[in-house]
Structure formats: C-alpha cells, structure tokens
Amino acid sequence: MINNNYVEALKKSGYKITPQRLAVIDFISANPGHFTADQVFREIKKREPTVTLATVYNIFRAMKSSGIIQSFEVNGSMIYESNNIPHANFICTSCGSIRDYPADGQEFLNLAKTDGSVVQSVDIVIKGLCPKCASEKSVRTHSIRSIKREKS
Length: 152
What we know:
Blueprint: H1 4-12, H2 19-30, E1 34-35, H3 37-47, H4 53-65, E2 70-74, E3 77-81, E4 87-92, E5 98-102, H5 106-113, E6 124-128, H6 131-151
Parallel strand pairs: 4-6
Antiparallel strand pairs: 1-3, 2-3, 4-5
Helix pairs in contact: 2-3, 3-4
C-alpha cells in the first residue's frame, strides 16, 4: 500500500516519482519502523530488479530531505526510520532490537542555545538490554552463580 503523503512530499520537494521510489515507499509504508538501506534493497530487488543499493541510498537521501524519514548512526551503520515524532531510540546491545520511547528534544535544543550553538538535529540513542535479553542474562548469571556455589 503506497503512502500518498510520502509521494506528495517527494513531489513537493521537486523529486520525480519513479518505479524505484514507489517500491521504496511501498516497503516503508508496509514496514514502518527501523530499517537499513541493505534490508530495503534486498526486499525491493525481488520485485523491482532494476534497483541498485546506490539507488536505495539516493532515494533515502531524497526522502530524508523531504522530511519523510530520519536516520541515525549506530556502530558505523546508518539506521533509517519512518517515525518523525520526537523520540529516543533504545537499542538492545544483545539482540539488536530497536524500540522508540517518547522524548522531547526541546531541552537539548534549549541547552545548546545557551552558548550560541545552532542545533541542526537531535538524535537520542540509548544502548542497553531489552527486557527479554535482560531477563535471559539475569537467568544465565544466576545459573552460573549457582553452579559455582555447588562446586565450592
């Protein structure tokens, strides 16, 4: 299902609507959340054989400049997302899952303004263990401690 708001935003920004752009829009509309260019490329290539990874990056650049998607970097990889509402990204360092938490970046903008800085964007990335991985790690740690005590 094509998100017409995405199409209109690209048109308004002066971009032509190509089959490749429609394929990317279709993927993002059907899979909102977080994604990499490589993930989108692999899926779209199945339906749109003319698409290249460079084309996906170019489309992402157009979508980002049109305000459709955002991006942030984690461990040298660029993560893109369709959520444009101010939020923090929580990344599980064990399983790699990414979850959004409401966060108002306004206080960071205000803080930077105190010294005359000009803020262009605010990315809040929190790293830790998601509830599932934290629970599993707790169980593993508890089991290891129990085994060590039994040997003593």
